[in-house]
Write a structure and sequence with these properties.
Keywords: Membrane, Transmembrane, Transmembrane helix. The chain is mainly α. It has helices at about 5-35, 40-70, 80-110, 115, 120-135, 165-200, 205-245, 250-275, 275-295; strands spanning about 150, 155-160.
Length: about 300
């Protein structure tokens, strides 16, 4: 039977996870319905959002219910698959984020070749490779010495002790994610510089275009910064800060599980905040519902 602490932790995981599922499901629907998202860019964004839904969904629909109904199942072989699936979705989110950064950079650097480089076939292959790599990275988790299991000591997932746990946890998860996020940051910074350089070429007489690019310039910079800080902060929180507060059940829970769920919820919220076309879909749904109700 679950303890009172188990119930509290499970309810927190479930509520936060469901909020993340709702926000990212809306983003997925809005990206699908929005005509302003390019074909390739839209598919890559959908891939990233699916990964966010996967993480928040596993936490809210698997981890939380298991903790409430059958806590001992977390210690079983099949219970350990929750951690494996979570890491797979995490990798898919990071790789999809990387593709988004590359897509934006190429769009500004080689605009005439963009449609050729990111044609449908190439985009689909890139997404298949991203998800294949995400699965390949967690293939070793099928072996118990390499498992990533839920721990009731902190209500978070922990890599197994030993050489395999160190390799998959520190080397292939933490360090690999840090390297990719740094590459994403550098790519986004390059895109930001491209926007500024292009803006300077516009004559002062073209005030409308100059003002539009200034707004786009700031929006892109702050969006990239917000997403980078969110993902980087989660890694530091999970692997570093949680070790500092080790022994304090709820602080460790907050800096690991809660932080992990929140970063993928916030990531979806960032897309809504920085893209008017995504918010317009919501307004369209509201107007449609209002019209239907009146009729």
């Amino acid at each position: 039977m679950p303890t009172q602490e188990d119930v509290v932790a499970a309810l927190v995981i479930m509520v936060l996870g469901l909020i993340g599922v709702v926000i990212n499901s809306y983003v997925l629907y809005a990206v699908y319905k929005s005509n302003t998202f390019g074909c390739a860019f839209g598919r890559i964004c959908m891939s990233h959002t699916v990964a966010n839904i996967g993480i928040t969904g596993v936490f809210s629909l698997l981890v939380a219910p298991i903790t409430l109904i059958a806590p001992s199942f977390h210690d079983s072989y099949w219970g350990h698959r929750c951690g494996q699936i979570l890491i797979m979705f995490w990798n898919a989110a990071v790789f999809s984020h990387f593709l988004i950064a590359i897509n934006r950079f190429i769009c500004l650097t080689w605009p005439l070749d963009y449609e050729i480089i990111f044609r449908k076939k190439i985009t689909n292959i890139a997404l298949i490779v991203a998800w294949a790599l995400a699965f390949a990275q967690v293939f070793a988790y099928f072996w118990e010495p390499c498992t990533f299991a839920f721990s009731f000591e902190s209500y978070s997932f922990k890599f197994s002790n030993g050489t395999c746990g160190f390799l998959i946890g520190t080397i292939f998860d933490y360090y690999m994610s840090i390297v990719i996020i740094c590459i994403i940051a550098l790519t986004d910074f390059g895109t930001y510089l491209k926007i500024r350089r292009y803006k300077k070429k516009i004559t002062t007489s073209n005030v409308t275009n100059a003002a539009y690019l200034r707004k786009k310039d700031r929006k892109f910079f702050y969006q990239a910064l917000a997403q980078g800080v969110a993902f980087g902060g989660e890694l530091i929180s999970f692997f570093t800060i949680s070790q500092i507060v080790k022994g304090n059940l709820w602080l460790e829970f907050g800096f690991t599980t809660v932080a992990w769920i929140l970063v993928h919820t916030i990531d979806g919220a960032i897309i809504i905040i920085f893209h008017r076309e995504i918010r317009r879909v919501c307004c369209g749904l509201a107007n449609t519902t209002s019209s239907t109700t009146k009729s």
